[in-house]
Design a protein that fits this description.
The protein is of the alpha+beta class. The chain folds into three domains: 3-185, Sandwich (Immunoglobulin-like); 189-226 and 330-461, 2-Layer Sandwich (60s Ribosomal Protein L30, Chain: A), CATH 3.30.1330; 244-326, Immunoglobulin-like (Sandwich), CATH 2.60.40.2190. The chain contains six helices and 23 strands. The protein has helices at 3-17, 21-24, 112-117, 354-366, 403-420, 446-452, and strands at 40-44, 62-66, 74-81, 85-93, 100-106, 125-130, 142-146, 151-158, 165-172, 175-182, 244-253, 262-268, 274-280, 284-290, 295-300, 307-311, 319-326, 334-337, 371-377, 383-384, 401-402, 428-434, 454-461. The strands form six sheets. Strands 1-3-8-5-6 form a five-stranded mixed sheet, with no helix packed on it. A five-stranded mixed sheet has the order 2-10-9-4-7, with no helix packed on it. The chain has a four-stranded antiparallel sheet with strand order 13-12-15-16, with no helix packed on it. A hairpin with a 5-residue loop joins β12 and β13 (274-280). It is flat and about 65 Å long.
């Protein structure tokens, strides 16, 4: 089927059917549970807060979201209006060859998806097409009033063979929300960790080589060395007023009693305001606190149990020193690798995974008696079909089969990476669980579904 013929066919289907439901009927595999309520929710105004005492003063107005596989034909924005307003929006495709039809609906019930699918609810704005070269396409901004306590839906319907994603620009009042929605990455933008042949020498934490990220992608995962050890950080001398005092904190391993690089946050218990949150270089940090208040310090580090400590600065002191000991994970404990990313329905690792892989490598290198199980998890157990956008790439891009088998492949990729970087194979086990162990059993949004797609590490032996 030629691209021109495909576009023509899609136009005819859209005009005859009146909307997105024609393409939904083509779905298969993981698309069995298509639901247009799996949408990106936006509240108008952007600064709205259900509690007037805690208004939202700095909303996140530049966002990136990722399509799930179910959304390859249509992506939805749910606009919840809390105040009368005038909004403007525009959709632009990321890739020049992508084509989209856009519809706007207004519906306040709980069964919108079914009503729209059966055409019982009609678009409030006539459809328009975006990112084309012909006269039928319209790149102009759409403006219309929205009423308080009403809900609107923007449907971005793909009408091209593949799609890389789109940009949404939504203006409400003085603020502009910009969303980059990504689905099938453009081939020219694909960047994955390439895995090379095993590394002969054991990689030590002191090695200073930077992660190797190669493109185009091969069938295996590249050797990525740990990040350079942080330079020693001396605690700076802080200027404090009469009603303030300085806090100096040391975070360390509870068994080895050595300073531990960790992330921390300092929160005012009375207001809930987080004063400071960042990484503690060489386990040390300092900050200024108000006298007479109580604070909570939260610490997290790769391979350790998260720790909290409450402090009540003494009234007459000029400064306070605190030590926080973090307990290493023990046999049976597990933790989620939050920053491991695969391209959808593949076991090709994204380059953004390098830092998290380095942390796991460093943890296992520093704890030579620890053995782990690497677990792969997916959102559900539907069958997966090959993505034609990846057909010219390696086998890790062209997976077809069960979600459980995919989760096994993903766990094995990480195991291969560790072996290639000097971790003994007998310390590593890889297991794919598919959708058997969801974090959220019945996800209702894309965000909840994405939480189920993860890699977990279980400590098997200390």
């Amino acid at each position: 089927m030629t691209r021109r013929f495909y576009h023509t066919l899609m136009f005819v289907l859209l005009l005859v059917s009146g909307g997105f439901h024609t393409l939904l009927a083509q779905s298969g595999g993981e698309m069995d549970h298509i639901d247009c309520l799996y949408s990106k929710e936006v509240i108008i105004p952007f600064t709205y807060s259900p509690d007037p005492k805690t208004p939202v003063t700095s909303p996140l107005l530049n966002q990136t979201v990722f399509y799930s596989y179910r959304d390859q034909f249509s992506y939805w924005y749910k606009i919840v209006v809390k105040e009368n307003n005038l909004i403007s929006f525009r959709i632009n495709a990321i890739n020049d060859s992508d084509r989209y039809a856009v519809y706007v609906y207004q519906y306040n019930g709980d069964d919108f998806c079914r009503q729209a699918y059966t055409q019982k609810v009609k678009p409030v704005k006539s459809s328009f097409f975006t990112n084309g070269n012909g006269d039928a396409f319209d790149l102009s901004e759409k403006t219309f009033p929205v009423a308080k306590d009403n809900t609107y839906y923007i449907c971005v319907l793909n009408i091209s063979p593949n799609n890389c994603g789109h940009h949404l620009r939504l203006v409400a009042g003085k603020d502009t929300l910009r969303v980059k929605a990504l689905h099938m990455p453009c081939k020219r933008e694909l960047k994955a960790l390439a895995i090379t042949s095993p590394v002969k020498k054991q990689v030590k934490q002191a090695d200073t080589a930077k992660p190797v990220v190669k493109t185009p992608v091969t069938n295996t995962v590249a050797a990525v060395t740990p990040p350079k050890e942080l330079e020693a950080v001396s605690t700076p001398r802080l200027e404090v007023s009469s009603n303030e005092l300085s806090l100096s904190c040391l975070i360390r391993d509870s068994k080895k009693h050595q300073p531990l690089d960790a992330r921390y946050s300092v929160t005012d218990i009375s207001t809930g305001e987080t004063l400071q949150t960042t990484a503690a270089g060489k386990g040390r940090f300092s900050c200024v606190l108000q006298r007479g208040k109580s604070y909570k310090i939260k610490c997290s580090a790769f391979g350790y149990k998260s720790t909290e400590k409450t402090i009540n600065p003494a009234a007459g002191s000029k400064g306070e020193s605190v030590e926080i000991e973090m307990e290493p994970l023990k046999e049976g404990d597990n933790f989620v690798m939050r920053s491991i990313y695969f391209y959808p329905n593949t076991y090709a690792l994204k380059k953004e995974s390098a830092d998290e892989l380095n942390k796991l490598l460093t943890f296992l290198s520093d704890n030579e008696t620890v053995s782990v199980e690497i677990q792969g998890h997916t959102n559900g157990d539907n069958r997966i079909v090959k993505n034609k956008a990846y057909e010219s790439l390696g086998e890790e891009w062209n997976f077809a089969g069960s979600a459980k088998k995919l989760s096994q492949k993903r766990a094995e990729v990480i195991k291969t990476f560790l072996i290639n970087n000097g971790i003994a194979a007998e310390r590593l086990s890889a297991k794919g669980y598919g959708g058997d162990k969801p974090i959220i059993k019945y996800p209702e949004t894309n965000e909840e579904g994405q939480r189920n797609i993860r890699v977990e590490i279980v400590i098997l032996k200390e």
